[in-house]
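Archive entry. Fields below.
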Amino acid sequence: MNSLSELLAMGGYGLYVWGSLGMCAAVVVAELMVIRFRRRLLAQEVMDERATGETTA
Amino acid sequence: MASINWFHYAAPQRFYPLAGRLVPWFGALAVVLTAIGLYIGLWVAPTDAQQGEAYRIIFVHVPTAWMSMVVYLAMATWAAIGLVFNSRLSSMMATALAPTGALMTFLALWTGALWGKPTWGTWWVWDARLTSELVLLFLYIGFMALHSAIDDTRRADRAAGLLAIVGVVNLPIIYFSVQWWNTLHQGASVSITRAPSMATPMLLGMLVMALACWMYCIAVALARVRVIMLERERHAPWARQALEGMA
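PREDICTED_STRUCTURE:
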């Protein structure tokens, strides 16, 4: 590889090479976001549980 | 190192902070190795004489395919330890590995399809290698579905764990499929017993990317097992404390 345009074109195989790398990147981002969301959801749930527990007590 | 008492960390409340300290290290290693691996793979490695630039898919295809099997083996091993010793943390590790393994399998299939189209002229064939890898994806999905279908967590651990262990038979089938059957998929380019049939920068790029994949999977599995520990032990004092720090 000698230039950025060459890198992007991938000798005519750009769709396949970048489609592969792009999907990997997308999966990594999605996986990290899901874990973060799951943790926040749990924290929220426990907070709510505790709040309702306190009002009924 | 010899003085570490591993059983000490088998308790979730002690493993939780340890995993928390490890995640950033494995994550950082994954980022650095990916940067190096992509630099070698996309910039330094020469164009392939037969496949042109299409071969560069190898730098993500082979690492994800390897990890799809490695993660499964790790998942089944943790499941087996969980079954034999009835240890909660082992079963949690198995559960934490499943989604990452499924994603690695999906990526191996996806990148394989995108590599198959320009080189074989087809996205998919029902050959032994591709089919057994698809079965692996179904095993992961089956493990997760079975686990979530059973309300009693410990029972879910045992049932899904058993499924994971039985599914291990698929691993040698995937690995040796290219030898046992006449497949469109090529044989191994890299093996321990003989010299690799690849140019050095290609091989190096692939190995660095494989290592990056290892680090990523470890980091993500540890991050996920931390959440699973909190979910399951939410009423334990240590988990309450940890959750309070989060909110």
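CURATOR_NOTE: The helical segments of chain A are 4-9, 14-56.
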